[in-house]
Amino acid sequence: METQCAAKHPGTCEMVHPKQPSHPGTLSSEPTRGTRSGRIIIGTAMGLAIGAFFWFDLDAYLTLETMQANRDRLLTFTDAHRAAAVASFILTYCLVTGLSLPGATILTLVGGFLFGSLLGTVFVNLGATSGATLAFLAARYLLRDTVEQKLGKWVGPLQAGFTKNAFSYLMTLRLIPLFPFFIVNVVTGLTRINIGTYVAATALGIIPGSFVYAYAGQQLGTINSLKEIASPNVIAAFVLLGLLALVPTVYKKFSGTQA
User: Total structural domains in the chain?
Assistant: First the structure.
């Protein structure tokens, strides 16, 4: 409530009462109900999709043995329907990554086998980055508010530190294959990292790994195990790249301390 005086009659003042909504509870309750309903719908849809994937044994199609047994059919379809094959591959990769389903590594090998190491890397990057972004947004929408409410005093300092150097940290997580891809998607969704930074760091950070597997996929028929690709030397190279991505952050902290 505030006092308002007329300009023409300074001595005349009147009490102005703030306008109240006709239904006080409507404005605050509707967004809450809408947000809760949206979370339930999205969470249920994702849960049903993941359940259907395993219920119908669709994971059996995303194995090294299955792809090797059907490589001639895959090549024939790709040669006859190039655009459809590319679109189907990117969409499948996006769904597998977005729902955190197993099979992304096999799809990367198949991308290299069907499209070559360079184009395969490009198509893998498009599918993986799109899917990772969907998983990131889903985690942020479904879980972040709850986590911050329940664990705010512990999560706050971590949020601040990660967000300050988000690009370097995320690049490191993407480059080092020791951190599962889907876990990084979900955990970063709980932070305050900007979505543009997330997309850029993800798209750049997965290029080396995608290229290695796509390149190996060109010899799909001769691969007996995924361990043949992820050799200790290859993993060590990825770790080195990941550590290099932290150099700018370490330098800033060191120079700030010296100052």
Answer: 1
